Amino acid sequence: MKELYLVTDEGMLHGRDLIQVVEETVIGGVNMVQLREKKASPRDFVEKAIALKQMLTRYGVPLIINDNVDVALASGADGVHVGQSDTPVLDVRQRLPLGAIVGLSVESRAQVVEANWLPVDYIAASPVFATPTKTDTVIEWGIDGLAWIRSVSRHKLVAIGGVKPENAGEILRAGADSLAVISGLLLPDSPREAAAEFRTILDRYGD
Fold first, then answer.
1. Is the dihedral of CA 69, 71, 73, 77 positive or negative?
2. pTM (2 decimals)?
3. For all residues of the chain together, what is the average pLDDT?
4. Are 175 and 139 in contact (CB under 8 A)?
5. In this structure, are strands 178-181 and 3-7 parallel, antiparallel, or unpaired?
């Protein structure tokens, strides 16, 4: 099954409860969640991760922590996602339990090729399209870039950045296995309905 991957951003919640909003997206069709906390204190990060993990476990949805192995271990999360300037993949893999999920962002062709030799479970093409939530990247992959990645990579391919219902089908046809969405799931008045719209598109493309 193609995945709908929520990446959190509390700045988009406008006072709504993080756990409730994430649960709504899961009911709508999200089947992987990454907790990304750039400004929270270590204690707050762990507390949010524990609460999310407890809720997601009821739905069988894995929790991924953005670039913090300590938080992942403390909360019992299912894995860690890192970028190119974060903790090295080999260090992350060494510290996590056997079977944990490790994801890696790729922002150049050289990084895609290098990732073939790294012990990661997926690579995230970042960003597919330019987006206000990803301002520190050096490339916009586009549809042709995704198709190139699919042709050379041995890993599951996650597409993130500017992913919308209007372009989701094109992204999936280019070879993405998973759609990672931030604003498209967190900003709508009904996160559940937003997730359901993406899920309908994903299900058209099967396994």
1. negative
2. 0.95
3. 95
4. no
5. parallel
